[in-house]
Amino acid sequence: MANAPVPQEDPEQLARFNARISAGDQLEAGEWMPQQYRFEAQRLIQMHANSEIMGALPEREWIPRAPTLARKMALTAKVQDEVGHGMLLYRVAETLGRPREEMYAELVEGRARFHNVFHYPAETWADVAIIQVFVDGAAMQTQGALRSCSYAPYSRVLKRICYEEDFHIQLGLDVWRALAEGTPAQRAMLQDALNRWWTPIIHFFGMPDKVSPHTEAMLAWRLKVKSNEELRQQFLRRFVPIILEYGLAVPDPGLRWVEAEQRYVYTEPDWEELKRVGRNGGPKSAERLALRQSFYRQHAWIREALGHRIAAAA
Amino acid sequence: MPAALATIADPAVRAAFREWLLRVADDELTIGHRHSEWTGVGPDIESDVAMSSIAQEELGHARLFYEQVAGDQPGGPDLLAFGRPPAEFRNAVLLEQPNHGWEFSIVRLALYETFEGQRLGLLARCGQEPVAAIAATLGREERYHGLFAATWLERMARPSADARARVQAALDAAWPYALGFFETTEADPILINAGLLHESAERQRDAWEAAVRPLLEGCGLAIPAAAPALGGRRGVHTPDLAQMHAEMTEVWGSDPEARW
Amino acid sequence: MSSPAIPAGSWVRALEAPADVWAVFLQARRRDAHVYVGDVHAPDAEMALLLAKENYARRDPCVSLWVVPARDIRATAEDAAEMFVPATDKSYRFGGSYRQQQRVYRGGYHTAPTEDDR
User: Fold this and answer.
1) Which of B157, B257, C27, C32 is deepest in the core (most CB within 10 A)?
2) CA pair distance A56, A76, nearest whole angstrom
3) Which residues of B38-55 are buried (b: 16+ CB within 10 A; e: fewer)?
């Protein structure tokens, strides 16, 4: 079940562990787990945490430019929530054995991964609506499914995250509506943003899963609950109608519902782009990592000053 | 006419009270805008979240006071916030300055919250409703802001000589502009004579200094001897406000009639 | 200030947490118990409380917070869970009703509210 080379686990202990998970059980922090499970869970959750922290960057560009006081407060609160999710998720990842500082430094230095969508520019105010409805909506599919994952601390945090994301989508729809029902210029801005974000959002769910030992392990261990394609279809079923309801165009002319198969067919996106972006080669990857590095260095003396207090108290 | 101003018969007093309310609203808007710029890039994740709440609350306060000035006028608070040029803003210049580092923002927060707490106390006694009632309720949010500032200030300034030097530099930069909180115009004597304002600017400044001194000196910081840098209360601002204003009004200004 | 070392194989364990992690307990209303809601990283207790307010009580009603260093928490070990499962009829604790005992054991009463209940 595991990929070589891995440390050999005691076969009986591993069998008991696998049986527990198969029976639907959840693990708490501190319980015994195979090294491979710990590695996979930690990597998954760390990438999620990284994505919340990097995800704050495109949207926070629009806080200073939000066009009403209400939008300004709402967007600040929304981005605040994402940062808060990062806080919750790093703590969960930390329970699997890596200090937060280490994970954060790794992210800032460009050696860690975060979701593809956050490597793209937020060029206009309308991008805020697209991100809040469609990007958050896409993330909701994965996050919702993983509420039944096998690592209980992650499961609990995901429930809280899903609860908060619901509010985000509601507010996103309010911005969407204002633009979709607004002036021709506002509608055009919204359609343009949707066009630019469409492929990254389709990419977000990943390539259709290959049958591989790795995928099998993730599913058996309930670190993956639904397939990439299932989640993508779930997303399309919920969000394509919103586009049509407001008389906007689905950016992919090849997208259509196939009644017989009860699924959407769509134009195969360029998966090479996803791979490039995943290696921090997206249009905004370098700039955003540089911004994080700049603040990280700027704050180094503060971390040190506060670190003195922890040392003093111990 | 807005309720807050309707009960004031004398047009000169009414104009003076309106100016006072705009000072408050503009102060809260500018500092709220600057605080909100920390969202996502604070020194640690938890403090990032907390500062963001402070930003949202200041913006909420700004909206409350703009509503008092706008009343039923079309455009409401947003028109006051987005539709006036920088020269009509009545905020203290300190609050329009960019976030020159976390230490500067914390020092500014400490200086401003002490002032704002006292100002809300004066507004709570102005006798004009609903402004007095509003001012009385905002105090508990400002209390948290003050605690956040003080707690952070102590932890930044005390650990080492280097840390204290950095915070001192921020205080040196901020202090002259903080004195601008107390800049007066023709409105102040009118408000005092009309019994709406119960403390002269000199007494306000003394009370404020008496309140911030223990906090600053307790952290090993020295209060600078500096002349006040004035202008904000009279609409004389810096390029920082022009930059903030241009950014803040970029989308709104693309179509002020549109619903956003 | 630190507790004595825990022997290996013990039914008691420490929550492994870095020195700067604080467990946060939130009291929603005056009549409620403080409930564990998560952790914050902070250099000391006062900062932990300050940060906990905005990190855990932005939306949820709250009148009081507690914080404690997470590494000071002592917990029962995973394999000690079996000790909590009754092996015999204890209906004498439930007014003589075995059905009551079963219902409570399955979580009918006194179950702490979870996020699902929102």
Assistant:
1) B157
2) 10
3) bbbbbbbbbbbbbbbbbb
pLDDT at C4 over 90: no
Q: What distance in Å separates residue C46's CA from the closest CA in chain B?
A: 8
* CB-side neighbour CA atoms (13 Å) of A46: 25
A71-129 residue pLDDT tens: 999 999 999 999 999 999 999 999 999 999 999 999 999 999 999 999 999 999 999 99
Please give the structure tokens belonging to residue B240.
């920082």
Chains touching chain A, criterion 3+ CB pairs below 8 Å? B, C
Of B45, B52, B148, the CB nearest to C50: B148
The alpha carbon dihedral of A204, A292, C42, A31 has a sign of positive
Which positions ≥6 away from B186 have C-beta within 8 Å?
B16
Chains that touch B (3 or more CB pairs under 8 A): A, C
Nearest by CB: B155 against C40, C41, C47: C47
Nearest to A203 by CA among A264, A135, A263: A135
How far is the alpha carbon of C51 from chain B, nearest alpha carbon, in Å?
6
Q: Which residues of A touch B56 (CB under 8 A)?
A: 73, 76-77, 80
Please report which confidence band the pLDDT of residue C79 belongs to, taking 50, 70 and 90 as the band edges.
confident
B8 Cβ contact list (under 8 Å, min separation 6): B14, B17, B128, B194
Residues β-bridged to residue A129: none
Chain B residue with minimal CA distance to C47?
A: B151
What pLDDT score does A87 carry?
98
Residue B100: predicted pLDDT: 96
In chain B, where the domains are located: 11-254
Question: What dihedral do alpha carbons B147, B149, B155, B160 form, nearest 10°?
Answer: -150
pLDDT grade for A1, boundaries at 50, 70 and 90: very low
Q: Kindly indicate the confidence band of residue C114, based on its pLDDT and cuts at 50, 70 and 90.
A: low
Q: Are B40 and B13 in contact (CB under 8 A)?
A: no
Q: Nearest CB to C19: which of A28, A32, A314?
A: A314
Distances (CA, A) of B185 to A237, B200, B204: 61, 12, 15
> CB contact, 8 Å: A91 with chain C?
yes
Q: Looking at the domain that runs over B11-254, which CATH code has it been given?
A: 1.20.1260.10
Helices (H) then strands (E): counts for chain A: 13, 2
What is the rounded distance in angstroms from the CA atom of residue A265 to the CA atom of residue A254?
A: 7
The answer to whether the Cβ–Cβ distance between A32 and C78 falls below 8 Å is yes
Which structure tokens are listed for A249?
């165009």
Which ipTM value was assigned to this complex?
0.97
The pLDDT tens digits for A154-183 are 999 999 999 999 999 999 999 999 999 999
Which residues in chain A have Cβ-Cβ distances shorter than 8 Å to C71? none
Contact B176, C71 (CB under 8 A): no
Instruction: Give the closest of C44, C55, C58 to B46, CB-based.
Output: C55
